[in-house]
Amino acid sequence: MTTPADPPPATSEPDKELQTVRRILGSEVGVLLGSIGLALLVGAILIAWAGQNPLEVYRIIVTESLFEATGWRDTLIQATPLGIIGIGLGYGFRAGVWNIGAEGQMIMGAVASIAIITYIGELPAGVVILAGILFGILGGAAWAAISAVLHVRFKVDAVIATLLMVFIAEPLLNYAVRQPLKDPATFLPQSRTVGNGELPLIPGTDVHIGVLFLFLLVPIAAWILSYSRFGYLIRAHGANRYAVYANESRPGRLPFILLVLGGALAGAAGYIQLAGVQMRVASGTAAGFGFTAIIVAILGRNNPIGVFVAAIGLSAMLVGAEAAQRALGLPVALTQSIQAIVVVFVVAAEAIEQRLKRREGERLAAAAELGVET
Amino acid sequence: MIDTVLAQTDILSLAFWATVLAAGVRLAISVGMAALGEMINERAGILNLGLEGVMLIAGFAGFAASFESGSPWLGLAGGFAVGALVGALFALLVVVLRADQVVSGLGLTLFGIAFTAFLNREIYGGGSTPPRAPKPGVWEIPFLSDIPLIGEPFFSQSQVAYLAIGITILLVFFLRQSYWTIVLDAVGEEPRAADAAGHSVVSVRFVATTLGSAFAGLAGALLIVGQLGFFNTGITAGRGFIAIALVIFGRWRPGGIALGALLFGTLDALQFRFQTLETAVPFEFFIALPFAVTLAAVAFGTRRARAPSALTIPFFRETEQ
Fold first, then answer.
1. For residues A177 and A283, is the Cβ–Cβ distance under 8 A?
2. Quick one: pLDDT at residue A94?
3. Which CATH class is domain A53-342?
4. Nearest chain B Cα to A351, which residue?
5. A residues 137-156 near B, CB within 8 Å?
6. Is-above-0.95 flag for pTM?
7. Confidence band (pLDDT; 50, 70, 90) for B162?
């Protein structure tokens, strides 16, 4: 029997510290940060091989994207489509529904937006903006719905059903800006400008209000995932889909909804990028945002708040990389390689972590069986 | 890729179809080889969504080997070797460490696209007029190449076509009657049973993933070294994912996959041909057509096809599941 006044045994103090260190390192954030650190190290080797000073490059990336006023602005603006799409994809990934076709869904959102804006562009700005975002959402959702039907009704693997649609969306976009939506005033294959559909700036800043859409979406999406029935179904479907199906009259409904939702958000991002940044639709309008958003969702652990942080981080990397390209001629492709390396390291670290947990569980179970105190 | 002979536009003539079929065989080779590779690892229960990345990395390595040495055959061997190396690393990730196969594969593809773009820029300038490496010659088989319709497609092809067709035929026979096929399928269908029978699930999956990726690497080299002779950013243009769809279309059998690849290749060749014809249909429609048909074929043609039971499911020997 020990009394409460007894001091703790002397050995427990460093033990506790060690445990804290282990807890941080073993936590999700620790694993993530460790993996990112390793990936940056590999990136440094590649940068050095390309004949640049890695520290100088990383310094430029960080200062140009986070510590300069224009850098912050660009980081926020680029993070907006990444975050919006990433949240939708993350919902799906969490449930085990792999929508990797957001690039095409974003394209079709932008095409649908510019189509309606070209048609009703003379109306007041508020109407045009509302119609633009509505059609963006519908365009992305409709495109994703094709994949969703193929997946749910025809049992095509979601990866295949969503990705191959990207390669159909791209030629459609090229046709749209070459023929029906072409701006007759130029010789280039591009649409008219958005005109009245342009997103206004947040008063007192030079950031368009589309950024606010992300800031609104993050808490709502986080709340839905954690506290609503829909969020519960997503988490349950990811953990054990058959448990969900046992209580569902239509088992395909949730994957269908998640694919269409992902498309709707990608389409919304298509409109925001169009009306806030690009002003016109042209070939390559989605600019890889739909693919980078996959990394954003994975690194953000498919959780809206994590996705937000990942979107800011990857956006900062890209903005900084563009600055480094301007200043030093270092290709942006290198930064994209580093981002992919981060993903690979993160999954590897997660797998190792799972393995250690498994080992630990087995050790405890074996010890319990033998009646040994651990 | 685009045939220089555009004169034969009479779509009812035998010559037109012989030319289209010949181009179709050329276009089928690379995507079919990648699909055969993917089939091997999928039958062991490992999904490699990094196929596109493997094709690009190995294809670029093959191009570099071919360009620097002047020998396209060295380039093809290099593509195979680098494909195996990348496959072994991927296997380390998903077979040994049991990392999530979908995320790892997507990571590999994204890495392959960006990394080869970076390397191409650093080493070869990455401009719009890339340097060209020598291509293997054409081999016209006497007499047979004169047969109407099938002579041009099958008996008057680039030497790499015969290599690919030879490997396909070897694989068909090897997989039809081999002890190792049974082990491969057991590991992909019932890993616990395979394990109980004394086969190491991890070893079989490791070898299958490495070998599958080696063939995907060869596929990348067949396209870039054997047929194009130059490299450009993202030059595989989704063929890795078409290959994954073809595995499903071919129901995880080499014969079905070869047939699917031929269908896809012919469609792709027709698409190039139709683009040059003056039709009312916009040419972008034809560019999208092979992807749409592949999707439709997977949706309608394979409703009863069944993937290996243990596909994407990691195997843990030590615990009951």
1. yes
2. 93
3. mainly alpha
4. B99
5. 150, 154-156
6. no
7. confident
